[in-house]
Structure formats: C-alpha cells, structure tokens
Amino acid sequence: MSTPPPPSSPQTHTGTCHCGHIRFSITSPLPDVVSCDCSICIRRGALIQRIPDADFHPITPTAASLEDGTHGLIEYRFNTMVARDYICPVCGILGYRRPRLGTGVWAINVRCLEGVEVEKLEVRRVFGSQLSTVGVEGGVTGEGKEEAAKS
Ligand SMILES: [Zn+2]
C-alpha cells in the first residue's frame, strides 16, 4: 500500500471525493464492478470494485494515516462493526471502504474514479441484504461468504 503509483497506464485511475479532500489512485482494471442491495449500498448507490492493497494508492489522506487512524475521514462502521467506510468529512462522499475481510482488500467507489463511464461498465448485482446479518447460524455471514464463493 505504501508503494508509489507507477506511471499512467490504461489501468491507472485517479479517484476523488466531490470536494477533492480524498484523493487516491488505483492501478487496476475494473473487472468485477458490483452493485449491492444491502441497507447502506442501496441508499448510497455506489458501484464497488474490490482491489488488493498493492493496487490501491491513497494520496490524501496518506496510506500511513489510514493505517494509524489519523486520516481525519469519517470512519463509519455498522452491523458487525468490522467493515470500515471512509467518508469525506467535508462533502460526505464515500471514497472507499475496508470490507469485512479486513487487510489485503480495498473496496473502491467506482463512481469516484475520473474518466470512467460507469454506464458502460458491466455491473454484477450482489445481494448483501440477504447475507449481511449478525448472529445468524455460523456467525458473521455476508462478505465472507460472498468472498468464499468468489475465490
Ligand atoms: Zn470531499
């Protein structure tokens, strides 16, 4: 996560929140953009692409501040309190989130990426509303289950 982004390539995308407080780039194509129907995704309408840490390059706030918690963003947690949504405190836009899987994966708000024509993306629907609950048989379901099915 601390490696600087390589020079621009077709797979490099720059992302910002609305006001520019959050800036980042990713060095990844967008092979599996998802639209989720869970209680929060359905409200915010974000399109999400998950990428490995190595492909995520925070600019502001810095990677170090995201790690040590001094990033200054709103860090919203709910339900299992494991996933972390990083929201701009100025304009209220979600830039990215750490899914329940925790370290190793970032979930990027594709709608924040510059130059990406979201209407041209192939979007896969996922049904987080049926998975994201606490205390169901077997403990935490949702993202973990989805990820297991995907890998
Ligand atoms: Zn902002």
Describe the structure.
The radius of gyration is 15 Å and the shape is globular. The C terminus is likely disordered. It is mainly beta and 151 residues long. The strands form 3 sheets. Strands 4-9-8-7-6 form a 5-stranded antiparallel beta sheet, with no helix packed on it. A hairpin with a 6-residue loop joins strand 8 and strand 9. It has a single domain, classed as Metal Binding Protein, Guanine Nucleotide Exchange Factor, Chain A (Beta Complex). 12% of the residues lie in helices and 30% in strands. It binds zinc ion (ZN). The site of zinc ion (ZN) has 9 residues, from loops.
Q: How would you summarize this macromolecular structure in one to three sentences?
A:
With 151 residues, this protein is mainly β. It contains three helices and ten strands.
Features:
151 residues; mainly beta; Metal Binding Protein, Guanine Nucleotide Exchange Factor, Chain A; five-stranded antiparallel sheet; 3 helices; 30% strand; disordered C terminus; binds zinc ion; zinc; carbon-sulfur lyase activity
Topology diagram in text:
Elements: E1 12-16, E2 23-27, E3 33-36, H1 41-44, E4 48-52, E5 56-60, H2 63-68, E6 74-76, E7 84-87, E8 94-98, E9 105-109, E10 123-126, H3 143-150
Parallel strand pairs: 3-10
Antiparallel strand pairs: 1-2, 2-5, 4-9, 6-7, 7-8, 8-9
The structure holds zinc ion.
